[in-house]
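S.,

As promised, the D-serine run. Input:
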Amino acid sequence: MSYETVREADPAVADALAGERQRQNDTLAMIASENHVSEAVLEAQSSELTNKYAEGYPGERYYGGCAYADEVEQLAIDRAKELWGADHVNVQPHSGTQANMGVYLAMLEPVDRILSLELEHGGHLSHGHPANFAGKTYEVEQYHVDPETGYVDYEAMREQAEAFDPDIVVAGYSAYPRDIDWEAFREAADAVDAYLLADIAHVTGLVAAGVHSSPVGVADFVTGSTHKTIRAGRGGIIMCREEHADAIDAAVFPGGQGGPLLHNIAGKAVGFGEALSPEFEAYAQQVVDNAAALGERLQEHGLSLVSGGTDTHLVLVDLRDSHPDTTGKEVEEALEEAGIVLNANTVPGETRSPFNPSGIRAGTPGLTTRGFGEEACREVADLIVRVVDDPADEDVKAEVSDRVDELTDEYPLYD
Ligand code: DSN
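Predicted complex:
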């Protein structure tokens, strides 16, 4: 996409936009929640639908002039139903957090109880962190991963559910590298007559492609974001059975949001259309294969992975065993200087502050979109380890940066 018109109108913003495009082209995006959408999704997201108000749902709007808005939203809904096999889909949530908020608003009263995974064990703020509306509005208890294995401790979660008697159990995470036993959560929720919410924000694309187990049909509600592994327009989504459709729709609008962001919904529709192609299944499988290759090579270099590996698009490195004096933030900053962008992350049993935690999280969706395969990901692991071993060494960072330049030239992104 060219920013010529923006440049004429507003050079300062055009400089920043062009700078960001260059940054994405010239660096390796390994933040596990990020990806690179297609030019078609970019174009759809910047369409004139940004001008349109369309409170309501297709065919039932509170404004005139909604014919094309209806078409676009219905396409997004229909494609999402096909992708995930859901009975009912709401594509209006502005983000994954807004999607979770929609479910809570629909099904819970203030002070009702949420049982969810603790943030530093891989959970998400919107699952009930005290700093988030969910933690302020509901009574929250959190379950954990087993400190030995790094896997969700299903037995302890089940016992905790029985003791706490939650109204909703939340499964699905932001920094958890393993597949999820949705049925175990279903049983735990059923035993205490609670709803089950599966938040598949990170793995939407993997679930759609069948390379991660699906909670659709098992959980009462499935939420997600639409710009991570699924690589569509930015925002959120809620899926549920028909019996909850009206409650969910009313909770999203007018319950928690006003006008839908139809330009983003157009991007969702285009991205979902792309994800229905056989190529997307191959992409999702490659994302998982690449993460496995990345993780294995990091382990060969002596780094510890939480849970000992990955089934998904991400690896979570606990630096405390191999590099006890190095923090995740130091590594994040040094790697960014070298052109590899990932994030410092808390790890289970964290002993440092969340601002300077003991781990790093790395994902392969962005690299895979660029065309990286397993061999290239193994080389990226080698580059990461060179920097982890000595984050202050300027010569190492310069050498890694030179190699990143070659790789980004070899696997180009946007024109
Ligand atoms: N911020 C996202 C992540 O990085 O996992 C989740 O919302």
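The chain has two domains: 43-275, 279-410. Residues 101 and 256 are 8 Å apart (CA to CA).

- D.
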